[in-house]
Amino acid sequence: MKPVNPNTDKLSERIILGVRKAVRKMIEERAAIDEVVMIGDGEEGFKYVPAKELLETLRKEEENAEKQSDE
């Protein structure tokens, strides 16, 4: 089903981008002070992960995404 308003897709993309930026900033702030963050484990549960570890994982994923887009 297509949205009634064609601007809905653009708005949704902007909202998602904003949320991603906010989450990234929160992870960076927590990594700077050696805290942990709680993340979903994909099985209806959660676990605590050091923010530094999560930030490094995000950086690697971004690098891989950039490499794939260059190909």
Gap between N and C termini, in Å?
Answer: 33 Å
The percent of residues in helical segments reads 55-70%
**Number of DSSP strand runs:** 2
SSE order: HEEH
Q: Shape from CA axes? A: extended
Written description of the protein model:
The protein is an alpha+beta fold. It is 65% helix and 14% strand. It has 2 helices and 2 strands, in the order αββα. Strands 1-2 form a two-stranded antiparallel ribbon. Helix 1 packs across helix 2 (51-70). The longest helix is centred in the N-terminal third of the chain and has 26 residues, at 7-32. The chain is extended. The model has no long low-confidence stretch (mean pLDDT 89).
Task: Describe the structure using short key phrases.
alpha+beta; extended; 71 residues
How would you summarize this macromolecular structure in one to three sentences?
By secondary structure, the protein is an alpha+beta fold. Helices cover 65% and strands 14% of the residues.
Topology:
Layout: H1 7-32, E1 36-40, E2 46-50, H2 51-70
Antiparallel strand pairs: 1-2
Helix pairs in contact: 1-2
